[in-house]
C-alpha cells in the first residue's frame, strides 16, 4: 500500500493526520457550505451585510418557499425531470443494443463503426450547434421537451455504447453460443441472457448519464427559448440575472438544482465511481 | 486409344460437396446474424448519424458561407477563416484556451496529491472521500454561481480574506484566472477519484519489495507507484485536456465572455457569434477550428484504442 499505512506512522503524525482531515474537508467544501448557510439566511440579514457569519435566525422555509413560488423554479425542476429521465432510458436502450451487436457479431466495418461511436464522445459540442438547431426547427422540435430528449439520447449513445460494448465483451461468449444452439433467437439471447448479466453496468451508466443530462446547460440554451421547457440549470442562471441581490434565493435555487444529482451520487456512489473510472485502470 | 476415364458415381457425397453444404449452412446463419446485427445497430446509428455525424459535415460546409440564419446562404470561400484570423477576439479566445489548457493541467497532479492524502484506512475515511468528490457532481451553472458570489468585490469571501475588494470578474486581467480557478475545483475532484481507484490496484508485493530495498517517499512514488498508475494518469490527462477545451458553462454564467470579450474561449465565441450576432457561417468557421484542435486528441485516443483491440 502506498503511502505507508498510518498504523506504522509515529504517534504524533498519526494524530496530526487525523486532525488535518476535517480541516481539509472544511476548506474543500467551503463553497458548498457557504451556499447551504446562505440559503437559510433571511433577507434582512443580507441587507445588514451579514453574508458570512452564522445566521441569527433561520429563514429556510421562507427562502425555499419564495424560491419555489415567486419564481418558476418548480416548473424548471419538473422540466428537468421530464427531459432527463427519458433521455437516460433512451440512450441506454439504444446503446445496449448497439453494444451487444458490436461485441458479439463479426462483420465488415465493425471496428470502424465502434471507432465512430468512440470518437463522438470527443467532438466539441459547438460544432453541432447550428445544424442541430436547424434540424430541431425543421422538425418542429425546437423549444420542446422531445427535441431536447432526442438530442441527449443521440449525444449520450456514443459514450454508453463504448462502455457497454466493452462490458459485454467480457461476458463468457460460450453462454451466448449455447443459447443459440438451443434455438434461441437473437433478440431472445439479447433480452433474456445478455441484459440481465449487464445489469450492474446499466446501473452505473444510468447514474452517470443522469447527472450529465441533468447538469447540461449549453443545449438547454441552444434548443429552448423562454420558460416553457427550460430546465433548472437555465432557471438558476436566470434567477441570478433577476435577483442579483437576493443571494439567499439564488442559493436556494442552486441547492434545488444540485439535489437530484448529489442525492443520486450519494445513494449510488459505487456505481457512479465504476462509471467514471471505467477504462482507467486497464489498457 | 484414348484412355477411358472411368465414370465416377459417388456413393457418398464428395468432401467438396460436404464443404459446400456446410458453407451454405454457415453462410445462411451468418447472414441471419448479420441481419440481426443491422437491426440491433440501426437505432443507435440513425441517431448518431442525424445528430452528430451529419452536423459535423454540415458545419464544415457552412463555414464557407455567409449566412445570417434566414436569408439564402452566400458562398464566400475561405473569407470566414480569413476574417477570423484577423479578428482580435479570435486571438484572445485562442490565448485563453491555451491558458485554460495549461492551468487545467494542474488538476491531475492536484488530484494525485489529494488521492495520496486520502488513501488511508482510518475511521470515517469513506465518508470523507465521498464528500471530497461531491463538487464534481455539481452542475457548471451552480459552481459558476457559487464562485461569482465568492468573487463579489463588495461582500465576497475573497474580499473578506484580502481586506479589500478585487473585481475579479470585472477586470480583464483576472477574469480568466478567476474562472479557471473555479473550474479546477470539480476537475481536481474527478482526477482524485481516478487516482484513488488506481491506487487500489497497485501491486502490494512490489511496493513491499521496494520498501525492503529502502525506497520511500518521492523515489517510491517516482519509480514504483507512478509507472503502475500509467493508464490512470493517461486517462486523467485526457479528460482534463478535453474538459479545458470544452469550457463553456462557467464562462457563460460567470462573465458571458466579458468584460470586453476578454474571457471568451473558442467554444463561447462560437456560441456568441451564432446566437447573439446571427453570424452562422462565421460561427461555423470558429467551431471547425476548435474541432481541428480537438481532432489531435481524438485521433490519438482512437489510435490507442484500436491498438489495444488489435
UniProtKB/TrEMBL annotation, chain A:
Organism: Collimonas fungivorans
One Gene Ontology cellular component: plasma membrane
Alphabetical GO biological process terms: transmembrane transport
Protein name (record): Binding--dependent transport system inner membrane component family protein
ABC transmembrane type-1 domain: residues covered: 77-268
Record key words, sorted: Cell membrane, Membrane, Transmembrane, Transmembrane helix, Transport
InterPro entries recorded: MetI-like (IPR000515), MetI-like_sf (IPR035906)
Membrane topology of this protein: Multi-pass membrane protein
Transmembrane spans: 76-100, 112-132, 144-168, 189-214, 246-267
Pfam families per record: BPD_transp_1
Highest rank taxon of the organism: Bacteria
Principal place of residence: membrane
From TrEMBL, chain B:
Keywords of this entry: Cell membrane, Membrane, Transmembrane, Transmembrane helix, Transport
Compartments it resides in: Cell membrane
TM region positions: 36-61, 98-118, 130-151, 174-199, 220-245, 281-300
Superkingdom of source: Bacteria
UniProt domain ABC transmembrane type-1: residue ranges: 93-303
One GO BP: transmembrane transport
UniProt-recorded name of the protein: Binding--dependent transport system inner membrane component family protein
Organism (species): Collimonas fungivorans
Amino acid at each position: 500500500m502506498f503511502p505507508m499505512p498510518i498504523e506504522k506512522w509515529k504517534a504524533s503524525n498519526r494524530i496530526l493526520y487525523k486532525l488535518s482531515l476535517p480541516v481539509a474537508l472544511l476548506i474543500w467544501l467551503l463553497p458548498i457550505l457557504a451556499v447551504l448557510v446562505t440559503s437559510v439566511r433571511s433577507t434582512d440579514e443580507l441587507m445588514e451585510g451579514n453574508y458570512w457569519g452564522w445566521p441569527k435566525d433561520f429563514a429556510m422555509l421562507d427562502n425555499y418557499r419564495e424560491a419555489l413560488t415567486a419564481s418558476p423554479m418548480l416548473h424548471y425542476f419538473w422540466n428537468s425531470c421530464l427531459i432527463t429521465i427519458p433521455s437516460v432510458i433512451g440512450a441506454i436502450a439504444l446503446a445496449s443494443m448497439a453494444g451487444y451487436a458490436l461485441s458479439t457479431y463479426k462483420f465488415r466495418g465493425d471496428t470502424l463503426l465502434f471507432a465512430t461511436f468512440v470518437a463522438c464522445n470527443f467532438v466539441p459540442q459547438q460544432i453541432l450547434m447550428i445544424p442541430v438547431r436547424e434540424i430541431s426547427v425543421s422538425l418542429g422540435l425546437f423549444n420542446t421537451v422531445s427535441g431536447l430528449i432526442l438530442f441527449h439520447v443521440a449525444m449520450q449513445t456514443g459514450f454508453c455504447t463504448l462502455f457497454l460494448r466493452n462490458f459485454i465483451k467480457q461476458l463468457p461468449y460460450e453462454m451466448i453460443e449455447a443459447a443459440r444452439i438451443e434455438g434461441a433467437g437473437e433478440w431472445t439471447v439479447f433480452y433474456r441472457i445478455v441484459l440481465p448479466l449487464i445489469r450492474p453496468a446499466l446501473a452505473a451508466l444510468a447514474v452517470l448519464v443522469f447527472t450529465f443530462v441533468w447538469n447540461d446547460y449549453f443545449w438547454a440554451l441552444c434548443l429552448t427559448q423562454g420558460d416553457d421547457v427550460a430546465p433548472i440549470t437555465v432557471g438558476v442562471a436566470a434567477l441570478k440575472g433577476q435577483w442579483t441581490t437576493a443571494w439567499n434565493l439564488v442559493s436556494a435555487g442552486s441547492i434545488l438544482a444540485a439535489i437530484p444529482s448529489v442525492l443520486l451520487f450519494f445513494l449510488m456512489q459505487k456505481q457512479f465511481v465504476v462509471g467514471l473510472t471505467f477504462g482507467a485502470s486497464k489498457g | 486409344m484414348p484412355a477411358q476415364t472411368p465414370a465416377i458415381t459417388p456413393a457418398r457425397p464428395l468432401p467438396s460437396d460436404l464443404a459446400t453444404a456446410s458453407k451454405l449452412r454457415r453462410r445462411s446463419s451468418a447472414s441471419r446474424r448479420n441481419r440481426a446485427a443491422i437491426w440491433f445497430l440501426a437505432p443507435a446509428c440513425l441517431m448518431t448519424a442525424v445528430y452528430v455525424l451529419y452536423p459535423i459535415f454540415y458545419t464544415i460546409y457552412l463555414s464557407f458561407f455567409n449566412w445570417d440564419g434566414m436569408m439564402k446562404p452566400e458562398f464566400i470561400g475561405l473569407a470566414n477563416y480569413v476574417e477570423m484570423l484577423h479578428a482580435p477576439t479570435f486571438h484572445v479566445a485562442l490565448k485563453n484556451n491555451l491558458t485554460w489548457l495549461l492551468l487545467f493541467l494542474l488538476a491531475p497532479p492536484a488530484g494525485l496529491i489529494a488521492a495520496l492524502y486520502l488513501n488511508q484506512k482510518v475511521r470515517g475515511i469513506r465518508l470523507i472521500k465521498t464528500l471530497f468528490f461531491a463538487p464534481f457532481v455539481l452542475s457548471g451553472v451552480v459552481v459558476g454561481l457559487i464562485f461569482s458570489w465568492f468573487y463579489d468585490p463588495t461582500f465576497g469571501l475573497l474580499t473578506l480574506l484580502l481586506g479589500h475588494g478585487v473585481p475579479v470578474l470585472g477586470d480583464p486581467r483576472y477574469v480568466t484566472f478567476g474562472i479557471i480557478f473555479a473550474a479546477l475545483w470539480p476537475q481536481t475532484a474527478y482526477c482524485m477519484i481516478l487516482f484513488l481507484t488506481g491506487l487500489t490496484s497497485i501491486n502490494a508485493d512490489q511496493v513491499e519489495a521496494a520498501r525492503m530495498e529502502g525506497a520511500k517517499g518521492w523515489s517510491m512514488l517516482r519509480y514504483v507507484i507512478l509507472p503502475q498508475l500509467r493508464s490512470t494518469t493517461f486517462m486523467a490527462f485526457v479528460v482534463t485536456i478535453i474538459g479545458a477545451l470544452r469550457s463553456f458553462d462557467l464562462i457563460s454564467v460567470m462573465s458571458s465572455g466579458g468584460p470586453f470579450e476578454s474571457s471568451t474561449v473558442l467554444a463561447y465565441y462560437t456560441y456568441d457569434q451564432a446566437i447573439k450576432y446571427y453570424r452562422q457561417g462565421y460561427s461555423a468557421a470558429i467551431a471547425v477550428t476548435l474541432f481541428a484542435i480537438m481532432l489531435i486528441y481524438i485521433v490519438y485516443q482512437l489510435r490507442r484504442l484500436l491498438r489495444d483491440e488489435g
